[in-house]
Predict the 3D structure of the following.
Amino acid sequence: MVELKIIFLGTSAATPTKSRGLSSIAIIRDGELLIFDAGEGTQHAIAVAKLGLNRETKIFITHMHGDHCVGLLGIIQSMSMAGRVKPLDVYGPEPLGGFLRESAKYLRFGVNFPLRVHQVHEGVIHETRDYKILVAQGEHSTPNFSYVLEEKKRRGVFNPAKALKYGVPTGELWSRLQSGESVKVKNRSVKPSQVLGAERSGRKIGISGDTRPTPKLEKFFSKCTLLIFDSTYSERHQYLAKERLHSTAKEAAKIAKSSRSNLLILTHFSSRYSEVNSLEAEARQIHPNTIAAYDMMRLIVPYPDQGEAKFLDISGEQANR
Amino acid sequence: MVELKIIFLGTSAATPTKSRGLSSIAIIRDGELLIFDAGEGTQHAIAVAKLGLNRETKIFITHMHGDHCVGLLGIIQSMSMAGRVKPLDVYGPEPLGGFLRESAKYLRFGVNFPLRVHQVHEGVIHETRDYKILVAQGEHSTPNFSYVLEEKKRRGVFNPAKALKYGVPTGELWSRLQSGESVKVKNRSVKPSQVLGAERSGRKIGISGDTRPTPKLEKFFSKCTLLIFDSTYSERHQYLAKERLHSTAKEAAKIAKSSRSNLLILTHFSSRYSEVNSLEAEARQIHPNTIAAYDMMRLIVPYPDQGEAKFLDISGEQANR
């Protein structure tokens, strides 16, 4: 079991408010830090959340609007000043490389670690033994790339009765079977498939960036354990959502429902709303399992077969909600 | 009498900390907002301090390091989205215009108000009926421009006894004399100079940006009512101050003393210090009238003949210090 924690570093659209910073979401999975978008102020939020500048990190940018990517400049400079030597991989739309290069020229900052900028495209853009990062294009005023982190299937549950039936003694051989190795017992081979249950699904986290809801995204976000979706507007500003190519809370809920996703988290709220309870309520009419994000909201995302997300308070204890 | 208020929007050097944002200082004088430096996060601090995006504003950049100017991007975008129509004047070193132009290209932001970028040079760069902004170059790893806001002399104090002696009756004629107009009494002209005391000095605010202390700056900051000076390091890190072309708290105090400035405010603290009381103490040994800034510290700066600065708490009441 690998812990997957999410921290909302910034939840405001376009302009920060007193209590909400600009877009950024951190996923901490198995010690690795994956950051989705880095609006102005993200390095400050990283400091507040104590995420550190020297860990294994990848940053994914949904689109080239300033409120989603300007924070990269400060993160890169501060990482460099903090003596980072580990590489940093940054993924985003085509102009990202040029933006970083030009900024480095004007601001004369040196980068003392390998900075690798990857231009994203639809499909799988990163894959490890454990998970994949997938991309699909949304519909916004500038190219927007939605992301999915999809864990690979996990081994099935170990069945002790079956192991004993095949004559495997408790101890080291059990561990080897559990970790996927075949073992020999009295010259007979026992395979993991003989003692493990069916493979279990991993988690799937969807992150929309700024977009209208589209059929392509409905498919892309199919059965997310957690879907984080553009919720810039309330229903009464539906016309603005259409005009400016964002989504309403209700539209986010519709796509969560039609994609058969489990938990929906609303974020990227227009600064015109001093509270977002009403947006949350609008979404819950369609998709009851919905939460409106706030800055520094943190949660542990369970595997699909392990119940509901656990929300933590600032001290890391389970939060009362 | 014109109120002059200062709010420290960000007081950390290079990297923000949990409690300190990147460099920015706001002066609000007679309703006009003058911002000196705009590190990442300044627009958030502007929101917290409720300074507004639609008022008469000028922004002065000391040098082109990211922690002093990257926040301009978000301020300009947010002003544009807030429907600003008033012009914005931005002053800074030569590369500033290019940086803003290139960023606008990559981030595709339109600016819906007149944005005027002025390249600064030593001497007077802006002058109104009431005050001047002056510039002198400091000594840093990239060209750094220190700023002075210097108010013009104010009229002397009105002397009622003298007015009566010259036969001027109380009422409208007194007001006209007080506002600098000559008046006629029984066919004789009475001039303001006959009834007003000597002209009184205005306030002088000095802002160093990032720099070593230099003889040029000592002269430039001569007799500041308030001097805000680079205080990146404590005495034990003097070698770093020399190496990286910053100042220590003690060096800031020495220049405050030798320039015969009144109040010294230390700012731009290295993030290595979790508290800055010791830096304040080091400076006070040289220049007792010294205060270490913190984010959202606000004070009213009095005229030189009107006593000491008044520090306000967040609600605008006089703070206990």
